[in-house]
Amino acid sequence: MTTATLTERPSAAAAPAVGRPNPTQIGTLVWLASELMFFGGLFAMFFTLRSMAPDTFTAGEANFKHGFALLNTSILVFSSVTCQIGVFMAEGRFPWGRPFPPRKRREGSVLNVAGWGMIEWYTLTFILGAIFVSGQAYEYTELVHHGVTMSSSPFSSVFFLSTGFHGIHVIGGLIAFLMVLMRAYVADEFTAHEQVSAICISYYWHFVDVVWIVLFFIVYMLDPIMALGDSGHVIPVTFDWSIF
């Protein structure tokens, strides 16, 4: 009588673990997709009014100081860089080099930038974002001083709506940064909860940054660039590179 040899299947414990995406990160990305649709509606409204009332856009855009707008945009773009470095510190890895223990706080002097942790990089990001919002408020004040108000023309209405809603999103991001920083300060150990919080706020901040780059090009740069190539452009606006 022969004994049949049975081939044992590997147990579930021996099977390699399958990485699953974090639900919080997935939910953040889905929510940002809905926000993208919201801003898409604002862009559609901008181009619709631009085609229907080009004269008001000519008069309104003539008050822009493109140099100041470019400087303010550069500050926001740089804040996205500092935010991502903060994420690298929270994750304990760069796209290059070897992994290292997640760094919550700085090592050594505050002047030693190479030793900064997530808290220092996110604090710098918060400061840059606050400077951007202050610059936008200053620009609003100057435009109102020149008679460009929310109800003065179709251009001013869509300008304040689109840039104002973006400014509200930036302020919301600043509040989120404060919450993440407070949570990092209070936590005794830097765990996965703090890492996920840092990563999710970075998603949001990068989204706000990209939306502003598109908004900046459409609102401030599109018509002056088109006017350079076509002297008969319907909105003949020239660049004003002054800052103040």
Features:
single chain; 244 residues; mainly alpha; 0% strand; elongated; disordered N terminus
Structure description:
The protein is built from 6 helices and no strands. It is mainly alpha-helical. The longest helix has 38 residues, at 192-229.
Shape: elongated
Structural class assignment: mainly alpha
Number of strands: 0
Distance between the termini: 99 Å
Main beta sheet: none
How do the helices and strands follow one another from N- to C-terminus?
Answer: HHHHHH
Question: Any idea what the radius of gyration is?
Answer: 24 Å
Ranges where pLDDT stays below 50 over 5 or more residues in a row are 1-18
| Amount of beta strand | under 5%
Question: Number of helix segments?
Answer: 6
Mean pLDDT metric = 88
Helix content: 55-70%
Describe how the helices and strands are arranged.
Elements: H1 23-52, H2 54-61, H3 66-91, H4 118-145, H5 154-186, H6 192-229
Helix pairs in contact: 1-5, 1-6, 3-4, 3-6, 4-5, 5-6
Write a concise synopsis of the structure shown.
By secondary structure, the chain is mainly α.
